[in-house]
Amino acid sequence: MKHLSNVLLLALTVFALASCDKEDDTCVESVWYQDQDGDGLGDASNTLSACDQPAGYVANSNDDDDTVAQVADVTAYGDALSDQVANGDGNGIDNYFRNSGVVVDEVANTYFAVNGVHPVNSGDYTSYYTKSIVEASLDTDEIVQVWAFDSNTLGREVDMEGLCFAESTDVLYIGDEYNFIYELDLNTGVVTREWDLADIGISTATDRGVEAITYLNGHFFVGIQEEQRIYELDLHLNATDAGSADYQTVDVISSFDVERSPSGLFATSDGSIYMVAFGAGAGDIYHYSTDGTLSCIITLSSDIEIVRPDGIYIDSAGEYAYLADSQGALNGLHGMYRVAWNTLSCE
Protein backbone atom coordinates (compact mmCIF):
# COMPACT_ATOMS: atom_id res chain seq x y z
CA MET A 1 0.00 0.00 0.00
CA LYS A 2 2.87 2.34 0.78
CA HIS A 3 4.26 1.73 -2.71
CA LEU A 4 0.86 2.51 -4.31
CA SER A 5 0.57 5.71 -2.28
CA ASN A 6 3.95 6.84 -3.56
CA VAL A 7 2.87 6.15 -7.16
CA LEU A 8 -0.34 8.12 -6.68
CA LEU A 9 1.58 10.99 -5.09
CA LEU A 10 4.05 11.07 -7.99
CA ALA A 11 1.20 11.05 -10.54
CA LEU A 12 -0.55 13.93 -8.82
CA THR A 13 2.68 15.91 -8.76
CA VAL A 14 3.30 15.39 -12.49
CA PHE A 15 -0.33 16.40 -13.26
CA ALA A 16 0.03 19.54 -11.17
CA LEU A 17 3.28 20.49 -12.89
CA ALA A 18 1.73 19.85 -16.30
CA SER A 19 -1.24 22.00 -15.33
CA CYS A 20 1.12 24.82 -14.33
CA ASP A 21 2.98 24.53 -17.64
CA LYS A 22 -0.30 24.64 -19.55
CA GLU A 23 -1.37 27.78 -17.70
CA ASP A 24 2.02 29.39 -18.45
CA ASP A 25 1.53 28.69 -22.19
CA THR A 26 -1.95 30.24 -22.31
CA CYS A 27 -1.94 33.17 -24.78
CA VAL A 28 -3.15 36.68 -24.26
CA GLU A 29 -5.75 37.40 -26.92
CA SER A 30 -5.36 40.45 -29.13
CA VAL A 31 -7.97 42.44 -31.01
CA TRP A 32 -7.76 42.10 -34.81
CA TYR A 33 -9.51 44.32 -37.35
CA GLN A 34 -11.04 43.10 -40.60
CA ASP A 35 -9.17 44.17 -43.76
CA GLN A 36 -11.86 43.54 -46.37
CA ASP A 37 -10.16 45.44 -49.21
CA GLY A 38 -6.68 44.00 -48.55
CA ASP A 39 -4.87 47.32 -48.21
CA GLY A 40 -3.25 46.53 -44.85
CA LEU A 41 -5.59 48.87 -42.98
CA GLY A 42 -8.27 47.53 -40.61
CA ASP A 43 -11.93 48.40 -39.96
CA ALA A 44 -12.41 49.53 -36.33
CA SER A 45 -16.06 48.44 -36.39
CA ASN A 46 -15.38 44.82 -37.37
CA THR A 47 -13.13 42.93 -34.95
CA LEU A 48 -12.12 39.51 -33.69
CA SER A 49 -10.21 38.54 -30.56
CA ALA A 50 -7.67 35.80 -31.06
CA CYS A 51 -4.22 34.67 -30.00
CA ASP A 52 -2.91 34.51 -33.57
CA GLN A 53 -3.70 36.82 -36.48
CA PRO A 54 -6.76 35.49 -38.36
CA ALA A 55 -6.78 35.50 -42.15
CA GLY A 56 -8.21 38.74 -43.50
CA TYR A 57 -7.55 40.69 -40.31
CA VAL A 58 -4.79 43.13 -39.32
CA ALA A 59 -3.51 44.75 -36.13
CA ASN A 60 -4.37 48.38 -36.97
CA SER A 61 -7.79 50.07 -37.23
CA ASN A 62 -6.90 52.95 -39.55
CA ASP A 63 -9.20 52.28 -42.54
CA ASP A 64 -11.85 54.94 -43.13
CA ASP A 65 -13.49 52.88 -45.90
CA ASP A 66 -12.82 49.15 -45.94
CA THR A 67 -14.53 48.67 -49.31
CA VAL A 68 -11.92 50.73 -51.22
CA ALA A 69 -8.20 50.01 -51.00
CA GLN A 70 -6.14 52.93 -49.74
CA VAL A 71 -2.53 53.74 -50.58
CA ALA A 72 -0.74 52.28 -47.59
CA ASP A 73 2.82 52.61 -48.84
CA VAL A 74 4.18 55.33 -51.13
CA THR A 75 7.87 56.25 -51.33
CA ALA A 76 9.20 59.09 -53.47
CA TYR A 77 12.59 59.11 -55.20
CA GLY A 78 14.51 61.71 -57.16
CA ASP A 79 17.37 63.04 -55.04
CA ALA A 80 19.91 61.12 -57.13
CA LEU A 81 18.39 62.55 -60.30
CA SER A 82 18.61 66.09 -58.94
CA ASP A 83 22.23 65.42 -58.01
CA GLN A 84 22.92 64.31 -61.58
CA VAL A 85 21.61 67.64 -62.89
CA ALA A 86 23.70 69.49 -60.29
CA ASN A 87 26.72 67.57 -61.59
CA GLY A 88 26.19 69.07 -65.05
CA ASP A 89 23.58 66.95 -66.78
CA GLY A 90 21.58 69.35 -68.96
CA ASN A 91 24.54 71.62 -69.63
CA GLY A 92 22.71 74.48 -67.92
CA ILE A 93 20.05 74.47 -70.65
CA ASP A 94 17.61 72.07 -69.03
CA ASN A 95 17.70 72.21 -65.24
CA TYR A 96 15.55 69.17 -64.58
CA PHE A 97 16.06 65.42 -64.86
CA ARG A 98 12.96 64.42 -66.77
CA ASN A 99 12.75 60.75 -65.87
CA SER A 100 11.34 58.87 -68.85
CA GLY A 101 11.84 55.27 -67.79
CA VAL A 102 12.54 53.00 -64.86
CA VAL A 103 13.85 49.48 -64.29
CA VAL A 104 14.95 47.90 -60.99
CA ASP A 105 17.82 45.55 -60.15
CA GLU A 106 16.17 43.66 -57.28
CA VAL A 107 19.38 41.91 -56.22
CA ALA A 108 21.48 45.08 -56.06
CA ASN A 109 18.46 47.03 -54.73
CA THR A 110 19.00 49.84 -57.21
CA TYR A 111 16.88 51.62 -59.78
CA PHE A 112 17.79 52.92 -63.24
CA ALA A 113 16.33 56.14 -64.62
CA VAL A 114 16.87 57.89 -67.97
CA ASN A 115 16.91 61.62 -68.66
CA GLY A 116 15.16 61.31 -71.96
CA VAL A 117 13.60 64.65 -72.72
CA HIS A 118 14.98 67.92 -74.02
CA PRO A 119 14.77 71.72 -73.92
CA VAL A 120 11.64 71.92 -76.07
CA ASN A 121 11.68 75.71 -76.33
CA SER A 122 15.07 75.64 -78.03
CA GLY A 123 13.60 74.06 -81.16
CA ASP A 124 16.32 71.41 -81.13
CA TYR A 125 15.21 68.20 -79.44
CA THR A 126 18.50 66.45 -78.79
CA SER A 127 21.82 68.01 -79.63
CA TYR A 128 22.44 70.40 -76.77
CA TYR A 129 23.46 67.92 -74.11
CA THR A 130 24.15 64.30 -73.44
CA LYS A 131 21.39 61.95 -72.34
CA SER A 132 22.24 60.13 -69.15
CA ILE A 133 21.17 56.91 -67.49
CA VAL A 134 21.54 56.92 -63.72
CA GLU A 135 21.71 53.92 -61.41
CA ALA A 136 20.77 54.88 -57.84
CA SER A 137 20.28 53.12 -54.51
CA LEU A 138 16.73 52.31 -53.44
CA ASP A 139 17.89 52.55 -49.82
CA THR A 140 19.59 55.94 -49.89
CA ASP A 141 18.51 57.44 -53.26
CA GLU A 142 22.14 58.21 -54.03
CA ILE A 143 23.95 57.83 -57.36
CA VAL A 144 25.72 54.49 -57.89
CA GLN A 145 26.75 54.82 -61.57
CA VAL A 146 26.08 57.07 -64.55
CA TRP A 147 26.31 56.45 -68.30
CA ALA A 148 26.05 59.35 -70.79
CA PHE A 149 25.38 59.31 -74.54
CA ASP A 150 25.19 61.90 -77.32
CA SER A 151 25.69 62.22 -81.07
CA ASN A 152 29.45 61.88 -80.64
CA THR A 153 29.05 58.68 -78.62
CA LEU A 154 26.71 56.84 -80.97
CA GLY A 155 27.19 58.65 -84.26
CA ARG A 156 23.64 60.05 -84.33
CA GLU A 157 21.33 62.21 -82.26
CA VAL A 158 19.79 60.36 -79.34
CA ASP A 159 16.61 60.69 -77.31
CA MET A 160 16.58 57.73 -74.96
CA GLU A 161 13.24 57.03 -73.32
CA GLY A 162 12.52 53.44 -72.26
CA LEU A 163 14.53 50.93 -70.19
CA CYS A 164 14.30 47.20 -69.54
CA PHE A 165 16.34 44.11 -68.71
CA ALA A 166 16.04 40.85 -70.66
CA GLU A 167 17.72 37.70 -69.32
CA SER A 168 20.45 39.40 -67.29
CA THR A 169 20.78 42.52 -65.16
CA ASP A 170 24.27 42.99 -66.60
CA VAL A 171 22.76 44.22 -69.87
CA LEU A 172 20.29 47.08 -70.24
CA TYR A 173 18.06 47.61 -73.29
CA ILE A 174 17.17 51.19 -74.17
CA GLY A 175 14.41 52.46 -76.44
CA ASP A 176 15.20 55.66 -78.36
CA GLU A 177 12.61 58.00 -79.87
CA TYR A 178 14.60 57.99 -83.09
CA ASN A 179 13.35 54.40 -83.32
CA PHE A 180 16.50 52.61 -82.30
CA ILE A 181 16.99 50.03 -79.56
CA TYR A 182 20.38 49.86 -77.88
CA GLU A 183 22.06 47.10 -75.88
CA LEU A 184 24.22 48.55 -73.10
CA ASP A 185 26.76 46.36 -71.27
CA LEU A 186 26.61 47.78 -67.75
CA ASN A 187 29.98 46.30 -66.80
CA THR A 188 31.87 48.07 -69.57
CA GLY A 189 29.56 51.01 -70.28
CA VAL A 190 29.69 50.14 -73.99
CA VAL A 191 26.73 49.93 -76.37
CA THR A 192 27.42 46.48 -77.81
CA ARG A 193 24.76 46.46 -80.52
CA GLU A 194 21.78 48.37 -81.84
CA TRP A 195 18.64 47.74 -83.85
CA ASP A 196 17.14 50.21 -86.33
CA LEU A 197 13.33 49.90 -86.42
CA ALA A 198 13.29 51.53 -89.84
CA ASP A 199 14.21 48.01 -90.98
CA ILE A 200 10.65 46.94 -90.10
CA GLY A 201 9.00 50.07 -91.48
CA ILE A 202 8.70 52.13 -88.29
CA SER A 203 9.36 55.76 -89.08
CA THR A 204 7.92 58.62 -87.03
CA ALA A 205 8.35 62.33 -86.47
CA THR A 206 11.12 63.48 -84.15
CA ASP A 207 10.19 62.89 -80.52
CA ARG A 208 7.34 60.52 -81.44
CA GLY A 209 9.03 57.13 -81.77
CA VAL A 210 9.98 54.41 -79.28
CA GLU A 211 8.71 55.66 -75.95
CA ALA A 212 8.57 52.42 -73.95
CA ILE A 213 10.13 48.96 -73.91
CA THR A 214 9.73 45.73 -71.93
CA TYR A 215 10.71 42.06 -72.29
CA LEU A 216 8.83 38.79 -71.94
CA ASN A 217 9.66 35.21 -72.94
CA GLY A 218 12.37 35.99 -75.48
CA HIS A 219 10.65 38.93 -77.14
CA PHE A 220 10.55 42.68 -76.62
CA PHE A 221 7.43 44.81 -76.58
CA VAL A 222 7.90 48.44 -77.64
CA GLY A 223 5.42 51.30 -77.53
CA ILE A 224 5.44 53.73 -80.47
CA GLN A 225 4.06 57.07 -79.37
CA GLU A 226 2.96 58.45 -82.77
CA GLU A 227 1.32 55.22 -83.89
CA GLN A 228 -0.39 54.58 -80.54
CA ARG A 229 0.66 50.97 -81.01
CA ILE A 230 2.67 48.23 -79.30
CA TYR A 231 4.95 45.92 -81.30
CA GLU A 232 6.21 42.49 -80.23
CA LEU A 233 9.73 42.12 -81.60
CA ASP A 234 12.37 39.43 -81.92
CA LEU A 235 15.86 40.95 -81.62
CA HIS A 236 17.61 37.57 -82.00
CA LEU A 237 19.53 37.86 -78.74
CA ASN A 238 20.90 34.35 -79.25
CA ALA A 239 22.90 35.60 -82.23
CA THR A 240 25.88 36.61 -80.10
CA ASP A 241 28.45 36.53 -82.92
CA ALA A 242 28.90 40.04 -84.30
CA GLY A 243 29.49 38.49 -87.73
CA SER A 244 26.15 36.69 -87.72
CA ALA A 245 23.48 37.86 -90.15
CA ASP A 246 20.96 38.04 -87.29
CA TYR A 247 23.23 39.92 -84.87
CA GLN A 248 21.39 43.24 -85.33
CA THR A 249 18.29 41.97 -87.13
CA VAL A 250 14.80 42.80 -85.87
CA ASP A 251 11.61 40.94 -86.79
CA VAL A 252 7.98 41.78 -85.99
CA ILE A 253 6.08 38.97 -84.28
CA SER A 254 2.80 40.84 -83.77
CA SER A 255 1.39 44.27 -82.97
CA PHE A 256 -1.78 45.85 -81.61
CA ASP A 257 -3.35 49.26 -81.14
CA VAL A 258 -3.77 50.71 -77.67
CA GLU A 259 -6.11 53.23 -76.10
CA ARG A 260 -3.52 55.99 -75.66
CA SER A 261 0.03 56.83 -76.72
CA PRO A 262 2.22 54.50 -74.64
CA SER A 263 4.83 56.14 -72.41
CA GLY A 264 5.84 53.13 -70.28
CA LEU A 265 5.48 49.34 -70.47
CA PHE A 266 6.09 46.42 -68.15
CA ALA A 267 5.43 42.72 -68.82
CA THR A 268 4.84 40.19 -66.04
CA SER A 269 5.38 36.44 -66.15
CA ASP A 270 1.64 35.70 -66.44
CA GLY A 271 1.57 37.41 -69.85
CA SER A 272 0.23 40.75 -68.68
CA ILE A 273 1.40 44.00 -70.26
CA TYR A 274 0.98 47.04 -68.03
CA MET A 275 1.06 50.41 -69.78
CA VAL A 276 1.16 54.00 -68.64
CA ALA A 277 0.26 56.55 -71.28
CA PHE A 278 0.27 60.15 -72.46
CA GLY A 279 -3.05 61.95 -72.38
CA ALA A 280 -4.49 59.64 -69.75
CA GLY A 281 -5.31 60.35 -66.15
CA ALA A 282 -2.12 60.85 -64.22
CA GLY A 283 -2.75 57.67 -62.28
CA ASP A 284 -4.08 55.36 -65.00
CA ILE A 285 -2.37 52.02 -65.67
CA TYR A 286 -3.74 49.97 -68.58
CA HIS A 287 -3.68 46.17 -68.29
CA TYR A 288 -3.34 44.38 -71.65
CA SER A 289 -2.74 40.78 -72.60
CA THR A 290 -0.08 40.05 -75.20
CA ASP A 291 -2.78 39.67 -77.88
CA GLY A 292 -3.86 43.26 -77.32
CA THR A 293 -6.94 42.63 -75.19
CA LEU A 294 -7.54 45.44 -72.69
CA SER A 295 -8.53 43.76 -69.43
CA CYS A 296 -8.97 46.80 -67.22
CA ILE A 297 -7.72 50.20 -66.19
CA ILE A 298 -6.11 50.71 -62.80
CA THR A 299 -6.51 54.19 -61.33
CA LEU A 300 -4.01 55.22 -58.69
CA SER A 301 -5.00 57.21 -55.64
CA SER A 302 -4.77 60.98 -55.90
CA ASP A 303 -2.47 60.73 -52.87
CA ILE A 304 0.28 59.89 -55.38
CA GLU A 305 1.17 63.20 -56.96
CA ILE A 306 2.18 61.95 -60.40
CA VAL A 307 2.07 64.58 -63.14
CA ARG A 308 3.04 62.52 -66.21
CA PRO A 309 3.77 58.80 -65.77
CA ASP A 310 6.56 57.86 -68.16
CA GLY A 311 7.73 54.43 -67.04
CA ILE A 312 6.59 51.47 -64.96
CA TYR A 313 8.29 48.50 -63.28
CA ILE A 314 6.62 45.87 -61.03
CA ASP A 315 8.84 43.79 -58.75
CA SER A 316 8.96 40.00 -59.03
CA ALA A 317 7.07 39.51 -55.75
CA GLY A 318 4.22 41.74 -56.92
CA GLU A 319 4.80 43.88 -53.84
CA TYR A 320 5.64 47.26 -55.39
CA ALA A 321 5.18 49.20 -58.61
CA TYR A 322 7.77 51.83 -59.53
CA LEU A 323 6.48 54.74 -61.62
CA ALA A 324 8.69 57.27 -63.41
CA ASP A 325 7.38 60.83 -63.64
CA SER A 326 8.91 62.92 -66.42
CA GLN A 327 7.22 66.11 -65.26
CA GLY A 328 7.45 65.68 -61.49
CA ALA A 329 10.64 67.66 -60.93
CA LEU A 330 9.35 70.52 -63.09
CA ASN A 331 6.39 70.86 -60.74
CA GLY A 332 8.35 70.69 -57.48
CA LEU A 333 7.54 67.01 -56.98
CA HIS A 334 9.50 63.80 -57.64
CA GLY A 335 11.03 61.80 -60.48
CA MET A 336 9.85 58.37 -59.28
CA TYR A 337 7.38 56.78 -56.88
CA ARG A 338 7.22 53.33 -55.33
CA VAL A 339 3.63 52.26 -54.70
CA ALA A 340 2.27 49.23 -52.85
CA TRP A 341 1.05 47.10 -55.78
CA ASN A 342 -1.33 44.97 -53.73
CA THR A 343 -3.42 48.04 -52.95
CA LEU A 344 -4.33 48.45 -56.62
CA SER A 345 -7.12 46.67 -58.41
CA CYS A 346 -8.48 46.48 -61.95
CA GLU A 347 -11.81 48.09 -62.79
Q: Number of helical runs?
A: 3
As laid out across the biggest beta sheet, the strand order is 4-23-22-21
Major pleated sheet? 4 strands, antiparallel
How much beta, percentage-wise? 35-45%
* SSE arrangement, N to C: HEEEEHEEEEHEEEEEEEEEEEEEEE
- The level of helicity is 10-25%
What's the name of the CATH homologous superfamily of the largest domain?
TolB, C-terminal domain
Number of domains: 2
How many DSSP-defined strands?
23
Question: What shape does the CA trace take?
Answer: globular
Structural class of the helix and strand makeup?
mainly beta
Please provide a written account of the structure.
- The protein is mainly β.
- It folds into 2 domains: 2-58; 74-343, Neuraminidase, CATH 2.120.10.30.
- The chain is 10% helix and 40% strand.
- The chain has helices spanning 2-25, 79-86, 151-154, and strands spanning 30-34, 43-50, 57-58, 74-77, 99-105, 110-115, 131-137, 143-149, 160-165, 171-176, 180-185, 190-196, 210-216, 219-224, 229-234, 251-257, 261-267, 272-278, 284-289, 294-299, 309-314, 320-325, 336-340.
- The strands form 6 sheets. The chain has a 4-stranded antiparallel β-sheet. Strands 5-6-7-8 form a 4-stranded antiparallel β-sheet. Strands 9-10-11-12 form a 4-stranded antiparallel β-sheet, with no helix packed on it.
- The model is unreliable at 1-23 (pLDDT under 50).
